[in-house]
């Protein structure tokens, strides 16, 4: 089973306004989660949202983004 990372740009109300699949695949969900943690480690404001089971961060332009894993055979 292969996993991928999904990135969602969020509105001011924290609702998704843009969704994209990041390039690359991972052989396990834990490897995909590790890649997310590495991606958000350099951001000043980031954390985990238990309600959405996703990681969040504020990117360089101040926009809020959400990252989560998904099986590669699932639809976005």
Structure report:
The protein has a single domain (3-71), classed as Roll (Chitinase A, domain 3). The protein is 17% helix and 41% strand. It is built from one helix and five strands. The model has no long low-confidence stretch (mean pLDDT 90).
- 3D shape: globular
- Rounded average pLDDT: 90
Number of helix segments? 1
Estimate the strand proportion.
Answer: 35-45%
**Helix and strand element order:** EEHEEE
The CATH level-2 architecture is identified as: Roll
> What is the CA-CA span between the terminal residues?
16 Å
Radius of gyration: 12 Å
Number of E-type strands: 5
- The CATH topology comes to Chitinase A, domain 3
CATH top-level class: Alpha Beta
Low-pLDDT stretches = none
Task: Enumerate the strands of the largest sheet in spatial order, edge to edge or round the barrel.
Answer: 2-1-5-4-3
- Structural class estimated from helices and strands: alpha+beta
Helix content: 10-25%
Biggest sheet character:
5 strands, antiparallel
The number of distinct structural domains comes to 1
Identify the notable features of this structure and list them briefly.
single chain; 76 residues; Chitinase A, domain 3; globular
Question: Quick gist of this model?
Answer:
17% of the residues lie in helices and 41% in strands. The chain is of the alpha+beta class and 76 residues long.
């Amino acid at each position: 089973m292969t996993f991928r990372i999904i990135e969602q740009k969020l509105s001011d109300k924290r609702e998704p306004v843009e969704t994209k699949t990041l390039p690359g695949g991972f052989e396990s969900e834990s490897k995909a989660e590790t890649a997310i943690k590495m991606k958000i480690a350099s951001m000043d404001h980031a954390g985990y949202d238990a309600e959405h089971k996703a990681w969040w961060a504020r990117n360089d332009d101040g926009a809020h983004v959400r990252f989560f894993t998904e099986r590669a055979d699932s639809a976005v």
